[in-house]
Design goal:
By secondary structure, this protein is mostly helical. It is built from 5 helices and 2 strands, in the order αααααββ. A two-stranded antiparallel ribbon has the order 1-2. β1 and β2 form a beta hairpin.
Length: 174
């Protein structure tokens, strides 16, 4: 579970770099049609969904990429064996942020059987898993609740339905 969480953490860090680049590009493309904004944000979505990185000589991520991640197919800001390292370290791609984060990490305790970083990684993965399950259950509950309310809706015209169960207007994509 910890390895999955580290992979998701690495993908999120990479996507945050892409999101910052998209925000800067949107400032430059302020007057462009909105379709360009959607295409830019789709790059962030793809970066969050796909677990592999594609290499390109024109990639902005090469500037922010951690050292030693070339050729692996993934950008690893947080190494998979971080809990087992003698001195845990995170490579953020920038020296100032990396040194700040690495100074906050606890040193390894050779006398103890478990490194504190392993406990932190396990706790982080459990918090992430509980949050993901909670959001999934909330989404299913909300979907079932709204479907129960619109079951009695009547067609007014076209794609416009009306029901007494919902007081606010909403639209459907179908």
């Amino acid at each position: 579970m910890t390895d999955l969480w580290i992979s998701i953490l690495n993908m999120s860090i990479t996507a945050s770099y892409v999101a910052v680049a998209v925000m800067l590009a949107r400032i430059l493309l302020r007057r462009a049609p909105k379709i360009f904004s959607y295409m830019l944000w789709s790059a962030v979505m793809i970066r969050l969904i796909l677990p592999v990185s594609f290499t390109s000589s024109f990639s902005i991520l090469k500037l922010a990429g951690p050292a030693g991640s070339s050729g692996t197919g993934q950008m690893q800001f947080v190494p998979k064996n971080m809990g087992m390292q003698a001195q845990p370290a995170v490579d953020t791609g920038t020296a100032s942020a990396g040194s700040l984060l690495n100074s906050l990490l606890p040193p390894a305790a050779p006398a103890a059987s478990v490194n504190r970083v392993q406990i932190i990684l396990w706790a982080g993965s459990m918090i992430w898993l509980i949050g993901a399950i909670t959001l999934l259950l909330y989404s299913v509950f909300s979907y079932v609740r709204i479907m129960r309310r619109v079951r009695t809706a009547t067609l007014v015209k076209g794609h416009v339905f009306e029901t007494d169960q919902i007081m606010t207007p909403s639209s459907s994509a179908s």
